Amino acid sequence: MSNRFINWGIFVLLCFIWGSSFILMKESLNGLSVLHIASLRIFVAGLVFLPFAIFHIAKIPRKKMGLVVLAGLFGNLLPAYCFVAAINKLDSSLASILNSLTPICVAGIAISFFKDNIKARKIIGIIAGFAGLCLLTLYQKTLSLDNSGYALLAVAATLMYGINVNVVGHYLKDIQPIHLSTVSLSLMAIPSAIVLWQQGFFQLDFNDSTVQWAIINSSLLGLTASAFATVIFYMLVQRAGGLFASLVTYGIPFVALFWGFLDGEKITVIEIVALCIILLGVYLANRPDKKINDY
Fold first, then answer.
1. What is the pLDDT of residues 206-230, one digit of tens each?
2. Number of folded domains that form the chain
């Protein structure tokens, strides 16, 4: 089996896992609250990574532990709450489209706060992506004054991702990605466990089949979308390079749209056009120069 075939297999698997995460969140809402789902997802992922984190934490400089915690907060914990809250009121397909704004947020924050030199074509990509978001916001039939705030929660999550990527890229690039991900995610298991306890998770009726199914979905979300996907994502980076791995962003919304369609969600022409514009912006904002190294 050729390396190219294996790389594409990992790529498709990542698109499927992360694209399916939105429908898993929606299914979990049938038996659990927003806080339960997000907390259980991060707790399960952190628990799985704990044995690795115990070994890797010694390889992280103490002076950078604060930034590692920040990476866990902005890269995992807080966005998890934002996206589950958003999906509580929005179609999972719409939430996945908003998630595709992440690379544009990365570029925008790099220009605004880190004074990075961004080429004109990348700025054009940011503008194109913003235009797609405006089109989606103005014409998306599922949006209204009552739920538009929840769409902003999804956008806020992408901003957090943008901040996290820039912090990691500027201040934590000397730390191995697998070390950073295992330690930061395991540390987030502590606040997520506290939230589960305070929100009465352990007082739920675990004999209720609806609660059981919701817990299975949330745990699967943590095991696959947060823990396992992180491991194979970095495997793909090592095998095929960061550029190829980053293209997973383009496939996620299409997988989520597919699941949303099977779940009875209506996909409008305007939504598809807006998605294409946003993805065009993502492509322009992330297209590399002729010669570029991974990371």
1. 999 999 999 999 999 999 988 888 7
2. 1
**Structural domain includes residue 257:** yes
Question: 293 lies in a domain?
Answer: no
Q: Residues 36-54: pLDDT tens digits?
A: 999 999 999 999 999 999 9
State how far the Cα of 88 lies from the Cα of 123, in Å rounded to an integer: 33
Q: Is there a contact between 222 and 44 (Cβ–Cβ < 8 Å)?
A: yes
Residue 168 in any domain: the answer is yes
Which residue range(s) make up the domain with 148? 3-286
- Residues with Cβ < 8 Å from 53, sequence gap 6 or more? 182, 183, 185, 186, 187
Classify residue 166: in a domain, yes or no: yes
Q: What is the C-alpha separation between 135 and 141, in angstroms, rounded?
A: 11
pTM of the model as a whole: 0.81
Q: Are 97 and 274 in contact (CB under 8 A)?
A: yes
If you count them, how many residues does the chain have? Answer: 295
Q: What is the 3-state secondary structure (H, E, C) of the chain?
A: CCHHHHHHHHHHHHHHHHHHHHHHHHHHCCCCCHHHHHHHHHHHHHHHHHHHHHHHHHHCCHHHHHHHHHHHHHHHHHHHHHHHHHHCCCCHHHHHHHHCCHHHHHHHHHHHCCCCCCCHHHHHHHHHHHHHHHHHHHHCCCCCCCCHHHHHHHHHHHHHHHHHHHHHHHHCCCCCHHHHHHHHHHHCHHHHHHHHHHCCHHHCCCCCHHHHHHHHHHHHHHHHHHHHHHHHHHHHHHHHCHHHHHCHHHHHHHHHHHHHHHCCCCCCHHHHHHHHHHHHHHHHHHCCCCCCCCC
